[in-house]
UniProtKB/TrEMBL annotation:
This is AAA family ATPase. The keyword NAD does not apply. Residues 271-302 are annotated as: Disordered. The lineage of its organism: Bacteria, Pseudomonadati, Pseudomonadota, Alphaproteobacteria, Sphingomonadales. PANTHER family: GENERAL SECRETION PATHWAY PROTEIN A-RELATED, PHOSPHORIBULOKINASE _ URIDINE KINASE FAMILY.
Length: 386
């Protein structure tokens, strides 16, 4: 892996959110200010929206790490199209209560009792709801009802709603959500990072894993990375992972624009081109077919170099090794058959078992390489589509 080649302690550009890598861009700094203000208010809804991969989950994870756990208790729900009753049940589960599915009364009782206990202990309670755009109007209304819990004049529950841009539009336009709109005390939409922040973001994550200048970066690459990623953190991570992987495969200690262009071309078309090539029947011991004179098909160059080339060679090598191993094992089977008249039955069975085990190992090895290749192609295709 590239982290070994460049001497990193871990991979710096994973696609999954990791608060340890939080980068305070201009837009994320504003979001933290809104969150801080909302937390000081201790009531109502805080709404954070942003494009897929804008860093909403990383932002809230960073916030959780900064909050004193002795003063604030946090529950978290990741939604996938919950209705009202399911929302209440999931909220109860987020605070550690096991209530029967569909028993709304039991869930509400557990939550209310818990909120009163926390308030008496001097602790605030926050519920974070991720992917809020998936919630039904009924589920959002149930969240509003939860915000009604008070101990005297003290509100007992504050909520942070994270969602994609359509959730922001939903809140602004739907008449049914007027009462929730009135209880939103802070809201912020995470914008993309600015062009001048790309280098800072990348070097920030690299420094976190021990980067000391290897690889170095051609100054022009930052503009190219911004153009491809549009300043969205997850897309930057995706591109940087591919860049470092290809750079390591080529033993490059400098990332230049040519490498970025090659990786971008691979990401947009390389996988599909190689998949199409693999669908063609393999011609053995025949001369290559001549290209049609009027052919306008673009040559698939991505498979000739870099990561795809390495992976294809790995598959070819696996096939070759597999065939050699099978041929060798067949010779052993023949040898056993010829000697079976004089060899004890137990010895023959033992040798056959050993051969079968080696065949199984070869099969597993081949399937592993093929699975890696398939995963690469499917992942590339699905991400390009998204």
């Amino acid at each position: 892996m590239y982290e070994q080649f460049y001497g990193f302690s871990e991979r710096p550009f994973q696609l999954t959110p990791d608060p340890a890598f939080f980068f305070e861009s201009v837009t994320h700094k504003k979001a933290l200010s809104y969150l801080g203000y909302g937390l000081n208010q201790g009531e109502g809804f805080i709404v954070i929206t942003g494009e897929v991969g804008a860093g909403k989950s990383t932002l809230v994870g960073h916030l959780r790490n900064k909050i004193d756990a002795d003063r604030v208790t946090i529950g978290e729900v990741v939604t996938s199209g919950l209705d009202g009753d399911a929302m209440i049940t999931m909220a109860a589960h987020s605070f550690g209560f096991s209530v029967p599915s569909g028993d709304k009364a039991a869930a509400l009782t557990a939550i209310e009792t818990f909120l009163h206990e926390e308030a008496r202990a001097g602790r605030k309670v926050m519920l974070i709801v991720d992917e809020a755009q998936n919630l039904s109007v009924g589920a959002l209304e149930e969240l509003r009802m939860l915000s009604n819990f008070h101990l005297g004049s003290q509100p007992l529950l504050q909520m942070v709603l994270l969602g994609q841009p359509e959730f922001r539009q939903l809140l602004e336009e739907w008449d049914e959500l007027e009462q929730i709109r009135q209880r939103v005390i802070a809201a912020h939409h995470l914008e993309a990072m600015q062009p001048e922040e790309i280098e800072q973001y990348v070097t920030h994550r690299l420094s976190h894993v021990g980067w000391e200048g290897n690889p170095e970066f051609e100054p022009q690459v930052w503009k190219r990375i911004f153009e491809e990623s549009r300043g969205i953190p997850r897309l930057i991570n995706r591109l940087m992972s591919r860049l470092l992987m290809r750079g390591a495969a080529r033993s490059q200690s400098r990332i230049d624009v040519a490498l970025v262009d090659a990786v971008v071309e691979e990401m947009h078309g390389g996988a599909s081109g190689v998949k199409q090539q693999m669908k063609q029947p393999i011609q053995m011991d025949e001369a290559p077919a001549a290209e049609p004179e009027d052919s306008h098909a673009e040559p698939v160059q991505e498979a000739q170099t870099g990561l795809l080339d390495v992976q294809i060679k790995a598959i070819e090598g696996a096939f070759a090794d597999h065939e050699k191993a099978i041929a060798k094992l067949r010779d052993e089977v023949t040898s056993i058959g010829q000697a079976s008249g004089n060899a004890p039955t137990g010895d023959v069975e033992k040798r056959l078992s050993e051969i079968e085990a080696r065949l199984d190992e070869q099969e597993r090895s081949l399937r592993h390489v093929l699975s890696m290749m398939i995963d690469f192609f499917e992942d590339s295709a699905s991400r390009d589509a998204a």
